[in-house]
Fold each of these.
Amino acid sequence: MENSLRSCYMVAFMVLLLLAGHLQSTEAQSGCDSVQLSWCLQSIVSNTPPSQDCCRRLRGQQAFLCREIRDPTFGGYLRHPGARRVATACGVTFPRCN
């Protein structure tokens, strides 16, 4: 009886570990990644149209743009007037951030 109870606890513990790992990897896959915006930097600072890769990555980061505007690495680029032009060309609504 004691061995079976110990086995149940061990199985439950392993399931919790697996779930925690899955949640962390899912969050990382769907989370904010400012490096994705680097695909758009050339178009932001020049008057060139954005590439398909830029637009795809920008759409993937759309939910995080307000956070990215405050980022010391890419924030300056997102505050650049060209960022709104690129967002419009990609069909991304540029948010109004507080």
Amino acid sequence: MSQPQRRAVLNLYKTLLFLGRDWPQGYELFRKRLHNVFLRNSEETDSNKIDMMLKHGQFVVKEIEALYKLKKYRAMKRRYYDDN
């Protein structure tokens, strides 16, 4: 793994850990699953496959952010708008 890829993987891991703080099932469960996924793929040396996994990781980051924004929107809607 090249140094820029290593830096990108660590940055992705840190970003996902940060996003996991608000995970509905709890931070510890999210952290354990994230650690297991990264540990399982830690022996990968193919540069193309690492790039594909990084792109998938960035997709997951965007999906988690969208999930949190939707959760926030629904809470605001419940708070300020009457259902009747």
Amino acid sequence: MASSHFASRLRKDLSVDMIRTKIVHRKSLSQKANRHKEYEQNRRFGLKDVNIPTLERRNLELEDTSQELIPEEMSVKPRSVKSVLSDQRRQMLQKYQEEKQLKKLKEQRE
């Protein structure tokens, strides 16, 4: 009788539903661990003290002094990342439209 109990238990553990349940449970545990790990990382940063100079402020001060040292005619405004990305997208769109027109013309010729 005891062996039949274990045999039915084994069959139950190998069923498709049980395997899916185990996978879902394992995935849920890993997500929980990842959430906790991220929470702990963010918790370490805490509140920033205003009196302590941060790296960003130091960089701003360095940029101000470097701009003063560079003559006006040599200073060139760098393009912003957004404008560069938008130009790239515009070029890709134009290329796509040209390819589409060529494809359309080829189909009309045939």
Amino acid sequence: MINVDPPTGNFPASGGNSTHNIVSESDSRLAFKVKSSNNDHYRVRPVYGFIDAKGKAKLDINRLPGPAKEDKIVIQYAEVPAEEIDATAPFKAGAQQGEIIVKIVAA
């Protein structure tokens, strides 16, 4: 299980940046993948990464100028062994265990 802090993102339609923490409540190491419902106006970094057991990872969201609207960021996650070095591998293998949705609003 993961959570995102803060759980939503609010941006001016003219563009802006927001930093969030992806927080793991799992006793296992996790890999994550970040997807957006609007790739024209949002950039996320990193797209793939790891979170140690009970750890956290930083997620930067950049909103480019565009029309005001609601979108979402979806963070998928999967348990991985400590020796895994490729964060994309579990998703290529279809190993997704869960996901969390972050509502993002440009006004």
